[in-house]
Design brief:
The strands form two sheets. Strands 1-2 form a two-stranded antiparallel sheet. The protein has a two-stranded antiparallel ribbon with strand order 3-4. The protein is built from 19 helices and four strands. It is globular. The protein starts with a helix and ends in a 9-residue tail after the last strand. The longest helix is centred in the N-terminal third of the chain and has 31 residues. The protein is mainly α and 493 residues long.
Length: 493
């Protein structure tokens, strides 16, 4: 299974691309460790809280194995075959295979992220006045925090395949426990998260408790794993033509936009798409608010900053839209790949428009910055269109895999990061020098909108002759395999 995981990563982005993420994490950790003493207002307990909270969240993100197992056993996931499907053809229990898969995932992601973080901190430890012994203990507690998060997510996903009511009750219990720490402040973070509690007095019992909790949660998840799954069957009435009329404003793309919308709804991914966009936006605001009011770290972001983040996080929505179904059957239809991309972009803009505008307006009101709302909306619209144009131009229908390619990621970062950094800098300048900041932000927004128009027009030039494929883009010439590719009528711009 470990070799399969490596093979899968390499098949998507190559050997260099698959190793890029841990190398990036390592160097970032070195930089942060070396420059730690220069940060004002952030002490060691705050850093420990951030690292351990991040480890738990990372574990929660990669530990939803119960749902993954259900999908592998009940759905055809493109052309990819997983060892998780072995129980369907071999005399081995599904719970045993899931237990091995869980151990493989734990090993893989610890090596992929936790080890590079700890290694980077170890290199920068002399500059941060930290001993290697402390760094080793930090690695141990981060490992335990990650395992608690992963095992909790594993258990929650397994329970959700059996009873949604019990799953919701468990989620409410976890949220209630978090509320006892903040905002109620009845418990401390170390009392709820034992690996963090170890750093209060270096009591080894916290380490033992952490290991026991992680083991019990993962063992319960394995024992509750279902051995058999029923393939989901749902019946729908024909709705393409009525839905098509609703999207008539998109012109020649209306049929494809209607198709994409129906697939999004019927796949059950609509909630995940909206949540995947809105969740990080709310998390950014809540983290800034918690650090500002609860911990006392002076983090002041205005609506203009959040407007820039709206555009950047829109990548998640587009990546979801390109990952909800396979499109290989389109190779025998009179539709070129750039049509599908444009249809997904129309749906992307419709989904993000209401959320983005509401988010920026509400934050402006909550922060008492209603005067900045118009400019924040302009920045949000400009960055949304621009980032979507860059993403579609570079990745087409393979956003989830191509962004792991070093070359594509470098181009994406080079195109997206500088304007977003400029937005962030000008958002801090808007109070000290409002005239200059407003003028530069308006100019930048107009430039981004102009660049967006160019990028969206360029989508057709790059992807018109690409082949629909589950593994990655293949660009054909206009003449391929001894015959001319049928001419495809293109929608007007």
């Amino acid at each position: 299974m470990f070799r399969e995981e490596l093979r899968l990563h390499r098949s998507f982005v190559g050997s260099i691309g698959s190793g890029f993420f841990p190398v990036m994490i390592f160097f970032l950790s070195v930089v942060l460790a070396v420059t730690f003493s220069r940060f004002k207002g952030i002490d060691v307990p705050t850093v420990l809280l951030m690292l351990h909270t991040g480890s738990v969240l990372y574990g929660l993100g990669v530990g939803a194995l119960g749902r993954i197992g259900e999908q592998v056993m009940t759905r055809r996931l493109s052309q990819v075959n997983f060892l998780l499907a072995l129980p369907s053809v071999q005399p081995i229990s599904f719970s045993r295979v899931m237990a091995i898969f869980y151990l493989k995932d734990a090993m893989f992601y610890i090596l992929y992220a936790i080890v590079p973080i700890v290694g980077g901190i170890a290199v920068g430890a002399p500059f941060a006045n930290a001993s290697l012994t402390s760094v080793g203990l930090l690695g141990l507690t981060l490992f335990l925090a990650f395992m608690i998060g992963m095992s909790l997510s594993f258990l929650a996903s397994t329970v959700s395949t059996r009873s949604r009511a019990v799953s919701v009750a468990g989620l409410l219990a976890v949220l209630g426990l978090v509320a006892l720490v903040w905002p109620l402040k009845i418990l401390t973070a170390g009392q709820v998260l034992p690996p963090l509690g170890f750093w209060a007095d270096k009591n080894p019992w916290f380490l033992l408790v952490s290991a026991i909790v992680a083991f019990l949660l993962s063992a319960a998840a394995v024992l509750l794993t279902k051995e058999r799954f029923e393939s989901p069957i749902r019946m729908y009435e024909s709705a393409l033509l009525p839905t098509e009329s609703r999207f008539s404003f998109s012109g020649p793309l209306k049929t494809l936009v209607a198709k994409e919308w129906l697939e999004l709804r019927r796949s059950g991914a609509l909630g995940a798409v909206v949540g995947g966009f809105l969740g990080p936006l709310l998390a950014i605001y809540m983290l800034a608010w918690i650090f500002r009011t609860g911990i006392g770290v002076p983090i002041e972001f205005n609506g203009i900053f959040y407007g820039g983040m709206v555009g950047f996080l829109g990548v998640m929505v587009y990546s979801w839209l390109t990952n909800i179904e396979t499109n290989e059957f389109m190779n025998v239809q009179p539709v070129s790949l750039d049509w599908i991309i444009k249809a997904k972009l129309v749906l992307y803009f419709l989904l993000t428009a209401v959320i983005s505008c509401s988010y920026v307006i509400i934050i402006g009101i909550l922060n008492g910055q209603a005067d900045l709302v118009p400019l924040s909306l302009l920045v949000a619209v400009a960055t949304t269109f621009y980032v979507a144009g860059v993403t579609a131009r570079l990745t087409g229908l393979w956003t989830n895999t191509m962004l792991f390619d070093v070359r594509v990621l470098a181009k994406f970062g080079g195109a997206v990061i500088p304007p977003l950094v400029m937005v962030a800098i000008l958002s801090f300048l808007v109070r000290s020098d409002p005239l200059l900041a407003w003028m530069l932000l308006v100019i930048e927004s107009l430039v981004l909108l102009g660049a967006s128009r160019f990028l969206l027009r360029a989508v057709g030039a790059k992807w018109k002759w690409a082949v629909f494929s589950p593994t990655g883009p293949t660009i054909l010439s206009s003449v391929g395999e001894g015959r001319k590719k049928p001419a495809v009528p293109q929608p007007s711009e």
